[in-house]
Write the C-alpha cells for this entry.
Amino acid sequence: MNNRGYTSIKNANLESLNTFGIKSKARELVRFSSSDAVLSYLDAINIEDFPHLILGGGSNLLFTKDFNGTILSAEMNSTEIIQEDEEYAWVKSDAGVVWHDLVQFALKHNLGGIENLSLIPGKNGAAPMQNIGAYGVELKDVLQDLTAIDLFEAKEHTFTNSECEFGYRDSIFKKRLKNRFFITSITLKLRKNPVLNLDYGAIRQTLERNSVSKPTITDVSKAVCEIRQSKLPDPKEIGNAGSFFKNPIVPKSVLRDIQKEYSGIVFYEISDEEVKIPAGWLIEKAGWKGKRFGNFGVHANQALVLVNYGGAKGSDIFDLSENIIADIRQKFGITLEREVNVL
Ligand code: FAD
Ligand code: EPU
C-alpha cells in the first residue's frame, strides 16, 4: 500500500478474483482502501489512457479474454449505524464490504430488511449496480442512498434511491452511467421491528421443516441459506456466476402460445399484460439441464447456472450461452438476456 491508500500490481492474475475461476490477466490491478485513495489515484493518472473495470467480488463477471486495461478493486471496508429513530436505523457500509457480512451485521443488530438476501456472493458496491434480488426482496426496497465517485470528473456524488433508476437486475449504473461511477458506499434503511417476507419460494416450508413457528430474521436468513445451498453450486467447488440469464418478461400472448404445448409452465404475473417466465424452466425443457461439454456445462440442479468444472475458457462458456439463446429463441420465440457481465 502506498501512502495514498492504494496498491498497484502489473500483469495481474485474475483467476482467483472471479467466481467462474477463469484464467485471465489484466494489464494492471489497483486496490483501494478508501474513497480518498480513489480520488488521489484519479489525481495521479489519466483515466482515459486505458479501459477500466471496477471489480467487487467478481461473482457476476465472465472474462472471455485478457483485460488490456486497469481493474479498480473496491476494498474499503467499514460498516456503521449512522442514524436511528424509533422505527428505523440507517446503516452505511463501504463498497468493499462482503455483502453477506453486511447481512450478518444487520442480523446481529436485529435490523430487518435484507435477511432474504442472505448468502448472495459479492461486495456491497455491485449490489446497487445489479439491484441484487432474491426470495421476494431487492436492494431497491432498502437502499436509502449511495455515494459514488465520477471517474471522469474525480468528484464524489450522492445518488438517492430514485436517482438509481432501479429495475429487475438493472440500474442507471448498468446503462447510462456504465463504467463512469465508482460506487464507494451504500446506506440502507433497516427496520428495528422487522416485517418478515415469507411468501416467496420455499421459505415457509423450510421454516416448518425446521420446526420454527415464530421466526426471527435470523431464522429466515438460515432458511434462505439452506434453500440456496441445496440448489446453487458453491463457487469454491464449481466455478459459476449464479444465474447466467435474466428471467424473461414477456407478453401474455407468448405465454398462451407456450401453454398450448406445455400446460405446466411456471410463470409469475407482472402486470395485466406481462408475465415473468423462469429461464431455468425454458432451458431445462429445451434439454440443456445437466449437459456437460468437457470442462464446462449447464448445472445439474439449476439450468440457469452455467459452470466451469475446471480449466474452461471464458469464450467456451460464452459460446455455450450463445447456443442456449439461439435454441430457446427457436423453440419458444423468446430471446434470453444475459445477467452476467461479459468482458
Ligand atoms: P462483480 O462481479 O465484481 O461486478 C459486477 C458488476 O458490477 C461489474 O460490471 C462491475 O464493474 C460492477 N461493479 C462492481 N463493484 C462496483 C462498484 N464499487 N462501483 C461500480 N460498479 C461496480 N445475484 C442476485 O441478484 N441474486 C442472487 O440470488 C444471486 N445469487 C448468486 C449465487 C451465486 C452462486 C453466484 C456466484 C452469484 C449470484 N448472484 C446473485 C450474482 C452476484 O452475486 C451479484 O450480482 C453480486 O452483486 C455481484 O457482486 P460482485 O461484488 O461480485 O460484483
Ligand atoms: N426451474 C426449472 N428448472 C431449473 C431451474 C428452475 O424448472 O433448472 C423453475 C422451477 O419451477 C422454479 C422456478 O424455475 O419454481 C424458479 O426457480 P428458482 O426459485 O430456483 O429461481 P430462479 O428464477 O431460477 C431467481 C434469481 C436468483 C434468485 C432466485 C430466488 C434471476 C435471474 N435469478 O432464480 O438470483 O436467487 O430467483 O429468488 O432472477 C442470480 O441473480 O444470480 C440469482 C441466483
